[in-house]
Amino acid sequence: MWSDFDVLNALNFSSSCITQADLVYGPKPRHKLDVFRAKQASSITIVFLYGGNWRKGNKVDYRYVGTSLARRNINAVLIDYRLYPEVVFPEFIHDAQMAVNWVFGHGEELFGQAQKVFLMGHSAGAHIAANVAYQTIFAPNYPVDGFIGLSGPYLKFLPTQSEDLKQIFGQEPCMQTQGLIDAKLMPDCLPKALLVHGESDQIVLPRESRAFAELLMTRGASVDLKLFSGKGHAVIAASLATILSWRLPILKEIEQFVFQ
What we know:
alpha/beta; eight-stranded mixed β-sheet; 8 helices
């Protein structure tokens, strides 16, 4: 039986991009990534991290994201990272950091020119990507050019309030696990951000994106906050498929954000 991902990927198939699958960025079995390169040369790359509550997910399910971006002349890199119970916080963030360093190191080789690199994630993937983009302790070798957060948990996120997440983030409250803490943000030159959230999201409340937008703006970052009335959690990620882009203009917002 086909999954929703199978349907999206089949209907969103495109021959307009060149793909390379399972490139190795680190020593572990899940340290692999897929590259989607538009036929027309582009200097823009988005590194995408999927969600899944830090315990599930696979890059092959999100091929539709890569093909949608490549159609818009944006190179895309979809990464796998280690999940619970194989690892706990912060190892999945270190994996993302390693993958972003790999992209910086291979940008000209893959795409024929130096790249502006943007990080994008949905849900748990947005949490991981935001840590790499904004936390000094997880920063890649080169600063990223921007962050795109889709339905992500950031500042109000308290894993110690959930019995399930205590196994991933630890039993005792600590500043490092309570989202992105102001004191741990990079001291200056914060990347610009596009934050997207559904107002009816009950899995990750929209207050997360509102609070993160406010914090970034107080630190001098440029932030574009897009809240969609009546929309929930999953539809934000599904709308990255070109065939569903009529439901929400997220792909258009992303295109404007990275090329402006």
